[in-house]
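Loading example: each entry is read as two labelled lines plus one structure line.
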Amino acid sequence: MAMLTQLLNTLLQTLFDLIPIIAIIFGFQIIVLRQKIANLKKIIFGLFYVLVGLVFFLVGLEKALFPLGKLMAAQLTDPAFIYSSLESIPLQLHWADYTWVYLFAAAIGFATTIAEPSLIAVAIKANGVSGGAIGVWGLRIAVAIGVAVGISLGTFRIVTGTPLHYYIIVGYIIVILQTMRAPKMIIPLAYDSGGVTTSTVTVPLVAALGLGLASTVPGRSAIIDGFGLIAFASLFPMISVMGYAQLSEWRYTRSTKKMSEQQSL
Amino acid sequence: MNRQLINIGRTLLDSTRDLLPIIVVIAFFQLVILKQPIPNLNEILIGTLFVVVGLALFIKGLEMALFPIGETIAYAFARKGSTVWLLVFAFSLGFGTTIAEPALIAVSAEAAKVAANAGLIIDSVTSRESYADGLRVTVAVSVGLAILIGVIRIIKGWPLQYLIIGGYIGVVIMTAFAPKEIIGIAYDSGGVTTSTVTVPLVTALGVGLASSIRGRNPMVDGFGLIALASLTPMIFVMAYGMVVH
């Protein structure tokens, strides 16, 4: 029964989210473009799938992944777990005591990014537009590695208490340097992947991790440090996606060079 | 019928594979590192099944509806050749998808609470509501402008990096001047705006426009709308904080 009300509530909320979009698109189609919509039946079915799919997806996350993930984030950051091998909790914490937290941050960042529906959408599109040159999985894994590194570094920052803007500014400098060297066609896609990652699945779990950490490490503010992690998660995918393109380009030129050398022999 | 069943089976298999990493990570940390049983196992299994089915349906609907809608509307505008209407559409799409976004409504209510606690606005229901509404409209306008600027960029063929890098320099400068309390919210609002329905639509629109305008490359010119839509809210929310506080 509780499940049913939750499903209905989520249905209403998703519908509320969808209606303005549908109204704008169909409004412009009919009033401005004065055009009949092709394949209307298929599109209506597709929109229905999107609606029902999102509802099940969101309710499932609320039921299964979020409670457990948040509970784990709280337990892993709890000083009682971190110092479980010692008899008492030391007064001075050392950043190396939090190794499991960094590993969990990286693992959960990677895993939630792989399941992010908007990233799947962008990857499918990029694969089609590039004529297969950009693999769906290649892009998704590159973005996921970026999020993993970013969130892990973000938790390290919370533990050590170093200022957020140092990391962000250094990150932007790397992005600018890469932009000058990376293949031109990857740049807009790399920038887009930064915005795509901070979506449905990743944000709640990452925010829980940040809040758990910020409230147990002495001297950290829950508001400032909880938000900081999300900034990391959208900065590092830009670096990893451009890096992925640079690496494939480098390997390609190296292999063609080798081939031409062999041919000239 | 048989082919359809195979099709459904394959989509379900795909979304199971998409979720497998999360299941492995959670199970490993819970059982091996924290050494604890998994609570409410039944509920968690049902929830996971929901997520798998939901993701499969969403991906199906994405290719049946969201991508084609974005593309046909881009082609139709390119054929009609009316830039003004295209820009009106771009702004409305950005504004309309953002103003009703549940995540944004939640964040602006939260932000109003933070602002009231910090004593930046009067702590009453009406002043909190008007603060939250103002924030919501600010973010929606900024996303509308982002899509509008992004569409102009596609038409003109401007390189994206100058806009984005310029924007980030703006963010860094404004961070120095904006009230401390608004900065976290501003950074977060960039991520909130790009919802699961908006991303595929806007991506298909950009790619569709770039492929129907002569001289534009869909890869170089088509992407980038999402990046702009997650940048402008940061600038606008900090500006809102500077004006209101």
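DSSP finds ten helices and no strands in chain B.
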